[in-house]
Design brief:
Length: 227
């Protein structure tokens, strides 16, 4: 059985978790107006969205030791550009307010290059991290329209861990599953860390096994627990 068939059929159906994102990230208009002045000809773009409906958007544009950040200072005032100096591989970008100014997320951090590239922020006192999933590593894009979209504090869904062993007939294989929020592009899945996962909120996976002859697939429900 190929992973592609399994991935298309694994659905989250229970235990305090939503079945899909409430926002269609594919419909987000990734167009930037009034961009800042760049010091190089090769700025790289990434879009962060926040909240169940992805209403809060924060643009990051990276060039050298500068990260340009487009956001509201308090969730109420108009968005403005600010520059943050760091190293080419590490930037501490401060806090992010969701639209309306009622929810603040702490310590946005970006490591846009190198082996340990990642994006992280504190949500309700717990760290959420994107950077590496089964599709690959997070890469800032050469244009805004192609920018990856990372969704923090979003609805939860189910995916396979990035190092899942292929399932094969006649072999016992552990199913490595993560729960989190799906973004757009490689490395954008934001998993819930073990120490932040709701206690006893075991999800149930519905797994569809295609048959060799193209007949009716075999459907199995599995409760993803420690037992």
């Amino acid at each position: 059985m190929s992973l592609s068939h399994l991935l298309a059929a694994a659905l989250l159906v229970a235990a305090g978790l939503t079945s899909a994102s409430a926002a269609d990230l594919g419909t987000i208009d990734r167009v930037l107006k009034d961009e800042p002045k760049y010091t190089t000809r090769t700025p790289k773009y990434c879009l962060l969205v926040f909240g169940p409906e992805a209403r809060t958007q924060v643009w990051l544009v990276h060039e050298g030791d500068i990260m340009h950040v487009h956001s509201s200072p308090d969730g109420k005032a108009a968005k403005t550009w600010r520059q943050v100096k760091g190293s080419p591989t590490s930037f501490s970008l401060g806090d992010v307010w969701e639209e309306g100014g009622k929810t603040c997320h702490k310590n946005l951090y970006s490591a846009p290059k190198g082996y340990s590239r990642k994006m992280s922020i504190r949500v309700d006192g717990k760290t959420q991290i994107a950077g590496w999933d089964r599709h690959g590593k997070l890469e800032f894009a050469a244009s805004a329209k192609d920018a990856p979209v990372v969704h923090f504090n979003g609805p939860r869904t189910l995916d396979l861990f990035r190092e899942q062993e292929p399932l094969r007939s006649g072999h016992q294989v552990d199913l490595s599953v993560v729960v989190g929020t799906q973004g757009v592009g490689p490395g954008t899945f934001v998993p819930i860390l073990c120490n932040a996962y709701p206690k006893n909120a075991w999800p149930t996976a519905v797994i569809e096994y295609p048959t060799k002859d193209g007949g009716k697939p075999i459907v199995v429900k599995v409760r993803l627990a420690e037992e």
